[in-house]
Amino acid sequence: MIDLHTHTNISDGTHSPEAVVRRAKEKNLSVIAITDHDIVDGVAEALQIGQEVGLRVIPGVEVSADSRAGAMHVLGYFIDHQDETLRRTLKELRSYREERNPKIVRKLNELGFDLTYDEIKTKAGYGSVGRPHFAAVMLEKGYVSSIQEAFDKYLKAGAAAYIDKKRLTPANAIEMIQAVGGLAVMAHPIRLKLKDEADLEQLVGECVEYGLDGLEVYYSDHSPELTRRLLDLARRFELLVFGGSDFHGQNKPHIDLGVGRGNLHIPASLLCAIEQHLRQRSEIKQ
Ligand code: AMP
Ligand code: ZN
Ligand code: FE
Ligand code: FE
Fold first, then answer.
1. Is the whole model's pTM more than 0.90, yes or no?
2. Which end of the chain has fewer CB atoms < 10 Å from its terminal CB, N or C?
3. How many whole angstroms from 220 Cα to the centroid of ligand 3?
C-alpha cells in the first residue's frame, strides 16, 4: 500500500513529519509522499526518519493555481526540495496567505467570533497557515462542533468569512515544479468546479499543453465510478496515475493514511510506471 498525498504540521496537518512517517510504517505502507501546501520544510525530516524506519519517502509539495474551474491544486513529486529558487517562490505563495489570513480573522470577528490572528498562528505553529487552522481554533472555542462545520458555514469558497487569495496560474505551477526536476500532477479533480465530464476533459487537455505529467486518480473522496472515469481519462491523455489520501491528521479526522475513509486502495504498482517515466526522462536529458 502507498499514499502519495499527505500533510504534516509544517502546513495544515496535525502530525509532525516524523509522526506521519512512523504512522505510515506502523500501517505497513511501503511508500509515502509528503505534500504540504506551499512549503517543503518538512521533507528533510521525513526523508531522514524514512531511512531510519525503512520507508520510502518521496519529496513533494501541493500548490494552488487559479483555473477557470476555481482553485486547482497541483501536486509536485520528486522535486529538489533544497532548491533556493523553489523555496523563494513558495515563500512568496505563503506571503499571499499572510495577506489573506488577517482578513479572514476580521470577517470572523464581524460575525461575532472572538479570536485573533495570533491564536491562529499559534495553532499553526511553524510553517504554512491554512484555513484548517482557523477551523481548529473555532472548534476549540466551541463555535462549531466540527472542522467540517466551520468550513461549510464560514470558510469554504463563497461562505461568510471566505477570502480569496492570489495564486499561480496552472502553467506557472507546472513550470515551477518541473524546473526543480519534479512531476506535476493535477490533484483531486472532484474539487474542481466543472460543468460536466467534457469540461474536465478540456481542462485536463489544457494542462497537458502546459506539460502536466499526471492525474490524481485514487483519492479519498473519489467514488469507484469517478476513479474508473479518471483512469480512462489518464490513459487517453497518456498521463501518469497518482493516488493519495490527503491525510491531515485531526484536521480531517475521517481520513487516515493509506486507506482514506477506509475503502481507499492505491496500488503500489503505480510507482512502476512513474519510475519508468522518470528513468526515460533522465535518459533523454543525457
Ligand atoms: P487553504 O490552504 O487555506 O486554502 O486551505 C486548504 C485546505 O482546507 C485544504 O487542503 C483542505 O484541507 C481544507 N478544505 C478546503 N475546502 C474544504 C471544505 N469545503 N471542507 C473541508 N475542508 C476543506
Ligand atoms: Zn490542507
Ligand atoms: Fe488539495
Ligand atoms: Fe492536500
1. yes
2. C
3. 11
